[in-house]
């Protein structure tokens, strides 16, 4: 990470590639990255606003390097007062800049002295296993992966490269599966499968990812799982899918590539959510969701039907 005292807007531009252009002083110093509301002299920030809203942002800033959209209002900017990095996606460009120049260093490679690792586990020398982690038998942890403190990884869990697992998460515990016997007592379905987590997955804190019953629970490349999520046994989470806080994904659910599960949603057992589909806030999914479809409500229905139902309810309320 470059010293913040030596970083300039020109350095940022050089790191961002041909799709960004600079307006103003390339020698402007950049010491830290902040939100737009906290912007003062010498900082980097961003705005996704356009037109009059962007003009208001520009009018109140001074001495700042601002990442923003291309907009006719930029022609009015005093280049001696502001430096602009103009791009089609200010937030993404800001993320890349912060990651390169301002993000704290990754935890050091190696196994913390307080961690407990089974002798049969295979851990790459570049992986980081944090304080009080537990890694069980027949597990593997790939290159550059990070387990933050108090992560528990049960037997037979395979974690690929550059996976990040935040504190308190449990991977590979048994799922919830029982059958009543002749006396009406519950007998547990044995969970002899595992968990496979592919490369570049990130898993938030205090999340539970259950092992499979017979096959594996799978989180595919680039999936992002938020804090306090429950992924049940035999779930298949697609590439770059997103599951957000307090969601529950039932047993044997398939989430398609790039699908989006909003906070506190529940997807019932054996349902399929198609690629690029969206499950809305607190939705209860009881039937399959098609690719690119957006569903809302409880039980979840297509977004258009949900909005139509709400409109009819408002009309009935107004008549009363």
Q: How many domains comprise the coordinates?
A: 2
CATH architecture of the largest domain: 3 Solenoid
How many strand segments? 35
The shape, in one word, is: flat
Largest beta-sheet details = 11 strands, mixed
Structural class, judged by helices and strands?
alpha/beta
Strands of the biggest beta sheet: in what spatial order? 6-9-12-15-20-23-26-29-32-34-35
Distance between the termini: 64 Å
Task: Spell out the CATH superfamily of the largest domain.
Answer: Hexapeptide repeat proteins
The CATH topology annotation of the largest domain reads as UDP N-Acetylglucosamine Acyltransferase, domain 1
Could you characterize what this model shows?
The protein is α/β, with parallel strands linked by helices and 320 residues long. The chain has 2 domains: 9-101, MurE/MurF, N-terminal domain (Udp-n-acetylmuramoylalanyl-d-glutamate--2,6- Diaminopimelate Ligase, Chain: A, domain 1); 169-304, Hexapeptide repeat proteins (UDP N-Acetylglucosamine Acyltransferase, domain 1). The chain is 15% helix and 27% strand. It contains 4 helices and 35 strands. Strand 34 (294-296) and strand 35 form a beta hairpin. The longest helix is centred in the last third of the chain and has 17 residues, at 303-319. The radius of gyration is 24 Å and the shape is flat. The N and C termini lie far apart (64 Å).
